[in-house]
Specification:
heterodimer, A: alpha+beta, Beta Polymerase, domain 2, Cytochrome-c3 Hydrogenase, chain B, 16 strands, 39% helix, 17% strand, globular, B: alpha/beta, Rossmann fold, five-stranded parallel beta sheet, 6 helices, 5 strands, 13% strand
Chain lengths: 525, 172
């Protein structure tokens, strides 16, 4: 159960300082010397742990310097390894040689905190999230940065990856691209219809969310967390609240835990329905778009009727939940699910028996299991490529420890698999909700939140409908928010899309993109 | 194929009527919208939706406007991929620094006369994100705005109402 922890303590001995005070206790945090930061990564890699996230913190207000954190996970265990980075030499050892997704994390650290990864001959130091027309020394996550000041634009050019050769051409798409969709830029190099290379450039919706947290109270932060990615408002608010409750030593009442999970599963069903609808539509099967969209609308309306909000925004609060399930609620939800699932199964038969749909979805946009693992993908994207990852099972909390979800893992790795995993998850979420309804205890909804002590940190993972959402929060000397790190599943899963489209034809890009449906806002923060 | 037909007939027309006051709202707003669009836009109001930095919550409801329950197409509302075909820009916010130029270019690419509607609390005034190094506040800080539809997010009925207000030339 504590394999990673044992490896660190036996290998590093007294050189790995165990930081007491991190909550919850199941996520140990070690400080190691900067020179040995990469060594820790290679130990983790050797035992098959994945890199969950890598981020930088300005700890000057806590009387220290900068720090870089890496979070690893294997099976049911999460572990944090951090190193101090001195102010007069803001560099840190790159983990990219050990973990591919580190290059994106490190680009972001370099862009927003101004720390430079070293030791990698081909470090990608192009700005990420930050654009080339920002002043190069604008590092918003540093404490010395004035977030209220408007940034001047400077001249700068972004160096795109290039592919050349006879007949190779380039297609730039976005940021304002087809449909009702968030902004992002996609640069394709193609020969004929086949995609040779795709480079994503995101950051258009960067709103300075992580910096904004530092000016809010712990309670007000919930509203902001609920707006990191609007379609995952429940999951983000829950992940934030769990991290905050950890740092504040606050235990919500049991009824709140059960109702929170109920909302989380309702969010999952609604989004999965909408996505299956959109995938069918991108394969020119409009019939299913309208049918599934209709089912999604029924969920939203029941949400509004029972909980006062179609998307369940601002219902989860630190210390519990802001809304109760009305008396007639359980019966209403059961009746809704009965009707919905009957229709759903009927539509699935049509989905399953449509050769035109099958032709478009099968073998399109394959993300191999090896790539899915090496890129650190999570959620339904990982599960559709053979990776058994679901933190409702790997890091369960009440009520998932009592009523475990069944994990759906497929191995065809294509658009069909990413759709079918979600189909199975709708069935399973409906089962979970029915079982929750039988067992939700009565009692209080909310307990007061007391401010945390100085210089503590909290960590949480929640399986939103897209996958594992990670929050890491740290308190300042006066118990305020010193840092709130967010890792949306999109931050890693966008890497998967770049690989999955290779060799596919350009017209199948929308279909591949929809089958991933990652958040731009959750990635750009 | 038979299954598809069966499902279509079994489903029937789900587009309103609904059972509560929402029904009258949609029907009333819809009738006035249809009339106004017929009168002023020759039966077809074409909209380009622009996300200038939103959390994607507003996008969910704008997409829901097109689901079979609200079915905004029946009132003559169409969404286009190109601003060059658009009569109206439906812009969500807050406008991020990184979207400022793209939003201005989209505005310039939309032929005159054009209408701009700012959607959501963030589109109206920057919302919870306010103004910072990364955000410029509401849509009005970057391009001229004709009408505002507040809400977080505004519901499909709010959206239909807001669009009606701007094309009907009457302010709420």
């Amino acid at each position: 159960m504590s394999k990673l922890r044992e490896i660190i303590t036996t290998h590093f001995g007294i050189d790995a300082v165990y930081c007491v005070g991190l909550s919850p206790a199941f996520v140990p945090e070690f400080r190691i010397q900067r020179e040995r930061f990469e060594e820790a990564a290679s130990m983790m890699k050797r035992v098959g742990a994945r890199l969950v996230a890598e981020w930088a913190v300005d700890e000057t207000l806590l009387g220290r310097s900068f720090a870089v954190y890496a979070c690893y996970a294997a099976d049911k265990e999460y572990l944090l390894a951090a190193c101090d980075v001195p102010l007069n030499d803001p560099t840190f050892p790159s983990l990219t040689k050990k973990y591919v997704p580190a290059f994106r994390f490190e680009r972001q650290i370099h862009s927003l905190m101004g720390l430079t990864p070293s030791g990698h001959a081909h470090s990608d130091l192009r700005p990420w999230i930050k654009f080339e027309d920002w002043p190069p020394d604008a590092w918003p996550l540093r404490k010395t940065f004035d977030a209220s000041r408007r940034l001047p634009r400077v001249a700068g050019e972004y160096r795109w990856a290039r592919v050349s050769g006879e007949g190779v051409y380039e297609i730039p798409v976005g940021p304002v691209h087809a449909g009702i969709i968030e902004p992002g830029h996609f640069r394709f190099q193609a020969a004929g219809e086949n995609i040779l290379n795709l480079e994503e450039r995101l950051g258009y919706t960067h709103k300075g969310i992580e910096k904004r947290f530092e000016s809010l109270s712990w309670a007000d932060g919930t509203r902001l967390a609920g707006r990191v990615s609007g379609d995952s408002t429940v999951a983000h608010a829950l992940a934030y609240c769990r991290a905050v409750e950890g740092i504040c030593g606050c235990e919500p009442p049991p009824r709140a835990h059960w109702l929170r999970a109920l909302l989380l599963e309702r969010e999952r069903i609604a989004n999965h329905l909408g996505d299956i609808a959109a995938i069918a539509n991108d394969a020119a099967f409009a019939f299913l778009l309208y049918q599934f969209a209709r089912l999604k609308e029924t969920i939203l309306r029941t949400n509004k009727r029972l909980f006062g909000n179609r998307y369940l925004k601002d219902r989860i609060v630190p210390g519990g939940i802001a809304v109760d399930l009305p008396l007639e609620g359980a019966d209403l939800i059961r009746a809704e699910l009965d009707g919905l699932l009957k229709e759903f199964e009927r539509l699935l038969t049509i989905y399953d028996l449509s050769p035109s749909l099958e032709d478009r979805l099968r073998t399109t946009g394959i993300l191999s299991p090896e790539l899915a693992r090496d890129l650190g993908t999570v959620g339904f994207v990982a599960r559709a490529s053979g990776q058994a990852l679901d933190c409702r099972i790997q890091a369960p909390f009440l009520p998932y420890d009592q009523i475990p979800p069944s994990m759906v893992v497929l191995d065809s790795c294509d658009v069909h698999a990413r759709a079918w995993v979600r189909i199975e998850e709708i069935r399973d979420s409906a089962r979970l909700i029915r079982e929750f309804l039988l067992k939700i205890p009565s009692g209080e909804l909310r307990v007061p939140l007391l401010p945390p002590g100085p210089d503590r940190s909290g960590f949480s993972v929640v399986e939103g409908w897209r996958g594992e959402i990670v929050y890491w929060v740290q308190s300042g000397l006066s118990g305020d928010i010193n840092r709130c790190m967010i890792r949306d599943p999109s931050s890693v899963n966008w890497l998967g899309l770049e690989q999955a489209v290779l060799g596919n034809i350009v017209p199948d890009f929308p279909l591949c993109n929809k089958s991933f449906n990652q958040s731009y806002s959750g990635n750009d923060l | 194929m038979l299954r598809i037909l069966q499902q279509i007939f079994r489903t029937g027309v789900v587009t309103e009527p609904l059972s509560d006051e929402v029904e009258t709202e949609v029907v009333l707003v819809g009738a006035r919208l249809e009339e106004a669009i017929r009168r002023r836009f020759s039966r077809s109001l074409v909209i380009r939706e622009v996300d200038s930095g939103s959390c994607n919550g507003c996008e969910l409801e704008i997409i829901a406007m097109n689901n079979p329950v609200y079915n905004s197409e029946r009132f003559g509302i169409h969404f286009t991929a190109s601003p060059r075909f658009a009569d109206m820009l439906l812009v969500t916010g807050p406008v991020s620094l990184n979207m400022e130029i793209a939003l201005k270019r989209t505005y310039d690419a939309t032929p005159d006369p054009k209408l701009v509607v700012a959607v959501g609390d963030c589109g109206c005034n920057g919302g919870i994100f306010g103004e910072s190094y990364a955000t410029l506040g509401g849509v009005g800080a970057v391009i001229p705005v004709d009408a505002y539809i507040p809400g977080c997010p505004p519901t499909p009925v709010d959206l239909l109402n807001g669009i009606l207000t701007v094309i009907d030339g009457r302010r709420t």
